[in-house]
């Protein structure tokens, strides 16, 4: 309530106290903390309703059909509204409350009228005098609803105090901090010769500084550290949180998103981009964008076609909405775009280029067709030793042969084709599927040709058990070499079947625990009896803030 009005009302404190005493004795009681919360809830509800776009101006209390004309405040309210035009109601002339016009709604409306009166007194318009009759009516109304007005004023003061505190203590006016910490206990059983790995307790930490300069753009500067390193009994089933740099802090993603008009979004990546950062992956609920709150494995998140290319370079990509239903995605990433040496750089070295069209006819169904062309340099030093750097698929998806079908270090070019589809049957159940094929051609040290296949089906059960939980089942084949001409011996894989199940239990909005199990039929893709299936079990705890 304005200080000017309070000054006017306090010019006769004895009259106000007498009136307040009578009113309190008749109806108004000092609210308890619980009552205050109830009042605030109703005030907030009324405030939300009062700011609805469907509101229309109502200049006469007679227009409000559900206001009780038998209440003494009716005539006083009518006089104030008729004179100052300060009440707002709904086009159907009702207040839509639990009662026709509750005390809480009345208090909020009265507060609006008092502010309106102040505008007439001190605003740009010619001052309007308060008549003795108006003065008496206003005083009585304020006295009658003293408790509700006091709580409303306290609420405003509290909000203003919080805003001041945030302004004084905020990290930055343009930047916010996002974080994720992962603890996981994992083990793997089986594999070649029935081997087993030791149980491990590992971690990954991410801190992302997200800056916005226009309110529609976002600059991500993410720091990462971790000691996840996979298992010796398999080269598949790599966890989505797999990241091993000895827990040393380093930049693991640097990118900038910004809009172009109303239909375009540009993704400018300086370090460690992935296609899933920009392209719709058509994998509802399972896709976590390498975060640790969804599927357990990288393969379980979405199609491996979005992981093609070395992600340590940079480049540019964009989405463009051709229509409300169709989105076109295209982009180019350089593998070693920061390296100026011969055969490297943004355009003369390794690269990955994607084109995709996504059709979303409804909020339940989505279909996409994807093409990726990529080139990989040989990865040999001057003495012909393998440097262990190149591979078709990033994030550890697929067999070793699928990543390097022509042996260690061979240069190659690939053309990949994929189809992705998803359907949400309800808010509690969704299905997604994908199919992909990569044709790889050797360009150094031979003329090998390889066919690489991958496919999968995912079932997602959001809010399973309670809100925030997630159940998931993924069945498919990680990338494997299905056929290879002029390739080293043993290059053709057995079908790399992958079965995954997990259940994320949300302790609260910031902590979740996810037990999961992964079964791999051909842990290294090749071999028979010496390549027994492997089972990976994990219990992942994720802290998000």
Provide a short characterization of the protein structure.
The protein is of the alpha+beta class. The protein has helices spanning 3-9, 13-26, 33-50, 72-84, 103-122, 132-144, 146-169, 298-301, 400-403, and strands at residues 56-57, 88-89, 175-190, 200-211, 218-226, 250-260, 264-271, 314-321, 326-334, 351-359, 365-376, 412-426, 429-442, 449-462, 470-485, 497-506, 511-520, 534-544. Mean pLDDT is 79; it is low at 1-67 and 89-100.
Identify the notable features of this structure and list them briefly.
545 residues; alpha+beta; Porin; 16-stranded antiparallel β-barrel; two-stranded antiparallel sheet; 18 strands; disordered N terminus
Describe this structure in words.
- The chain is of the alpha+beta class and 545 residues long.
- It has two domains: 3-168, no CATH class; 175-544, Porin (Beta Barrel).
- Helices cover 21% and strands 34% of the residues.
- The chain has nine helices and 18 strands.
- It has helices at 3-9, 13-26, 33-50, 72-84, 103-122, 132-144, 146-169, 298-301, 400-403, and strands spanning 56-57, 88-89, 175-190, 200-211, 218-226, 250-260, 264-271, 314-321, 326-334, 351-359, 365-376, 412-426, 429-442, 449-462, 470-485, 497-506, 511-520, 534-544.
- A 16-stranded antiparallel β-barrel has the order 3-4-5-6-7-8-9-10-11-12-13-14-15-16-17-18. It has a two-stranded antiparallel ribbon with strand order 1-2.
- Strand 13 and strand 14 (449-462) form a beta hairpin.
- Helix 2 packs across helix 6 and helix 4 packs across helix 6.
- The model is unreliable at 1-67 and 89-100 (pLDDT under 50).
